[in-house]
Please model this.
Amino acid sequence: MKNLFILFAVMSFMFHACTPGAESTTQEKVSDEANPLLEEFNLPFGAPPFDKIRNEHFLPAIKAGIAAHKEEIDAIVNKEEPPTFENTLVALDQSGRLLNRVNTVFSNLNSAHTNDEMQEIAKEISPLRTAHDNDINLNAELFARIKTVWENRDAENITGQDLRLLERKYKEFVRSGALLEEEQKSRLREINERLSMLSLQFGQNVLAETNAFTLEIDNEEDLAGLPQWLIDNAADVAANRGKEGSWVFTLQWPSAMPFFQNAENRELRKELWTAFVNKANNGNDNDNNEIIREIIALRIEKANMLGYENHAAYALENNMANSVERVNELLDQLWIPALEAASREAADLQAMIESEGHDFTLEPYDWRYYASRLKAERFDLDDEEVKPYFSTDNVRNGIFMVCEKLWGLTFREIDDLPVYQKDVRVFEVMEEDGSHIGILYEDLFARDSKRGGAWMTSFRKQYYDGDERKAPLIKITCNFPPPGANTPSLLTFDELTTFFHEFGHALHGLLSDVRSYELSGTSVARDFVELPSQLLENWATEPEVMKMYARHYKTGEVIPDELIAKLEASGTYGQGFATVEYLASTFLDMAFHTLEEPFEGSAMDFEKAAMKEIGLIDAIVPRHRSTYFSHVFSGGYSARYYSYIWSGVLDTDAYEAFAETGDFFHPEKAQLLREHIYSSGGTADPMELYVAFRGAEPTIEPLLRKRGLMPPKTVRK
Model:
């Protein structure tokens, strides 16, 4: 999910301001009666009572949730009746509701609105959760019951979604060490607990480093080239830090990226860029080099213990691209044409530098500046010309209209449910007939208390309780520029597509109609989960759709046809750079996770060697450098960062299903899309779901055409 972040407010103040009593310490004892997390949420739609939740509630509630879940597991294990799908798998799927409810609230707030106290609580919670997960996954008696049901699946006539759930749980237990000897299980517990803490610390270090550095400018001449909105925001940031009369820029995306694109002062670009690409690589308490070395060593040991030659082989087993060879096949098809395109782009930028009388060589901190200027020159297109048409409210309205035209969905804003931060908005999502689908929380604007990036999560996944559909509570989180004093939040074209992207994930959770909690919503293979999100991006750029929502925030004027034409004409501009920058991180991920022995030296030295091996040109660095590569070291994408490009093959091929009809809202295609992609969760093999929608497996050509790259020979997946 895309990296977008900016400085907005002091994290501790913002969290305390919206959570009365947050000053209490984690050591305080909270009675069960006083803890709202231990009660069923009785607000409309089962929404969390954020106005009553305080920091000191989390640890006792997590402990209570763990205790309750243990009792539920013991009840399954101690059943006198022989194991059946109903008394074992269904019971297991329905267990842990209290723990899930508490943990989703805590994890959401800890990533989107954290503070020092919450991060300390996270360090207490992490080993408790990991130990509890180990207790379940390594429970020999529980696995014996699951194994019995698995072996009796034909006799019990287990089919469809039930068979899918059984297969997933059986494999999950095996992959979690259920077949290991006791001594190995003990070591696996240690590894899991250590990895959990290392991943947590990695993410906290990245956030701390992002917030630690600022570039303060006190000479107005050094602002040359910067758009006025960015100058105004930097002045606001300075004032909030007690530095009136100066301008402060940060490492958060909506501050740093437009600075790189527009600042004429090359030395200042270099200063900010150097800090940006060295996050958590500064030899201080937040340095992640040693953490990465230990994570990689432990992942290798765990993979070997479970019978895999490396972590990548383990991680890929249940994905669509289920082997290192298949991933490399895809990457190799893209790398050469993308690198050739990026090299041509680099030559164009170098020529522009020299045409202006400069004698320096293009550096990474020059690329975005000169690429932005060359784009404006070639296409008469300036990002600042486009942004007034893309206010967050207008883009949201556009997304709502797309959803209505595809599936008849309607949206109603709710203003009387409590939220955890003042900018969060809540919407009820309904079918065309007004029946309830789910609730959507939107947390769109950057602030210090939020980690970088954009993501979708849930406060409750969809599932069935008997015949009753439990509606989901879904949240999307972004890091868009906050509104100014006199202007709304205005988005770049990339930020616009990010909004559509995260809403695609949200739809995957909202439209889910699956019986099992385990299989619902986004509980799919990692290289399939990006299909629903990336697919929705395609509608964002359709001229017909854009004219539905892109209106100037001051005048209400619809975006002019000539501006749309410029956007279309520039559609493949810079795709060599964008693809190479992304693929470099993908190759780096695979290099780390195909290791069969721990590496020596620093993570950054390893990165340098890996980039030299693939021939990355000096003017480009990986999109995510090792020490802040949160996707793979504190997220769920280790050995699977390729998933975005794999899903890119799927989404471009899938969108052609609509293009071929000449109707981008074709009712029959829309219904197939909802039925097989957005509503089916993990109830079937991902390729089976895709073929059920598309009628055939995808090809790579649509992706290459979209990116303006030379198509290779057709390869059918």
